[in-house]
Automatic annotation (TrEMBL):
Protein known as: Cytochrome P450
Family membership noted in the UniProt record: Belongs to the cytochrome P450 family.
GO MF terms held by the record: heme binding; iron ion binding; monooxygenase activity; oxidoreductase activity, acting on paired donors, with incorporation or reduction of molecular oxygen
Entry-linked InterPro entries: Cyt_P450_B, Cyt_P450_sf
Disordered: region residues: 412-435
Amino acid sequence: MDDLSTPVPPPGCPAHHSGARVPLYGPEFAADPQAYYAYLRHYGPTAPVELAPGVEATLVTDYATALQLLQDSASFRKDARRWRALGEGKVPPDSPVAPVLAYRPNAMFSDGAEHLRLRQAITDSMAKVDPRKVSQATARVSDFLISQFGARGSADLLGDYAKQLPLFVFNELFGVPADIGDRVVFGIAGMFDGVNAEKAMGVLFTAVGELVALKRSRPGDDVTTWLMQHPAQLTDEEMVHQLALLMVGGNEPLRNLIGNTLHRLLTHDAYAHQGGLIDEAIDDTLWENPPMSNLAPHYPVADMEFGGTRLQAGDLLLVSFAAANTGPALTAARQAGSNRAHLAWSAGPHACPSKEPARQITVTAIENLLNKLPDVELAVPADSLTWRPGPFNRGLATLPARFTPVDVARRSSAAAPADTSARQEPAAATDRKTERGGMWSQFLNWLTR
């Protein structure tokens, strides 16, 4: 065989001369993941990768093979207690990927009847969310965030906008009061920013536990209450873990989807400031730059051959949504008009249960931003932007922008939410309040001033 026909690892890849597993972390991978996926495809439908130092996995890069994995709940399970390497002590206890992959008693890591019970409670509760309330909540939060930087004429559309908007919208939909909401925002941001992630996780779970206790005594018109009142009769512990899953699992993908779509709109002339093309820009982003690039951990129940790779029971498999979406086999289908057949929302019994609200929040957030800042543009060259490293997500570190300064006024009280439970605080919370308050408290004060 001609040596030129065999792909070589991308420049800077540690596997270049060693034949080692291909690392999906570090600045080289973050800068050009598609070069890595193109190389990984030469292994076949599956490829050997390393998620972090010492953490090995098999990555599914082929669309059809990914669908087979996602839909075969008999041969592959989600319960991370099956993870053989973790059970054998081969995964470093301080590994940065452990918090994402480690077992928790929630719908993401359950199988069979237990998964169906938890999943049904989540989907039924989310189905009660009024789309009008989602749009109104998103517009209010968008106005508030723009009001914080609009007069400056410049902003980091990631840190100042896309990162914070999903947290605030979720707080409102879940009926989170000010003091608890401040700690939810702190906890989720800390977990993904990698700044004392263990402490951040503790703060988040404590805050969500207080939210559950509050809603047991003072139910409201919100997702937390609906989940609590579901016929599945979730215990307090189950409530905490399902709510944390929804809040954490919903925030990071939504943050990246908003940011990646804004990036696409600001760097591709075909979309520039044409509001009618926002839906198209979102679809193109989900195909080519999905917010979660590699995830959906699964474990084979027995030794088997799958996608050309010999697997042992309990080996870790991940789906590369980014590679599967951009594989050569998908090009023809996409050109034929199947514009929403991508895997960005996953597929099978564990597919995203909130893709419609997520899309609605993204559309409203971007439309409102472009309406308020019609001349917004990148403040730096596009090729100077950097992407956050890591194997799972795909998101920019910053998105600096400039625009003509604006003054954004609070929306009229007619648009305020009918349910005021998110603004009510238990007596214990009042004792902890400080003059400074957190961003969620500031938002609630802004709404009522």
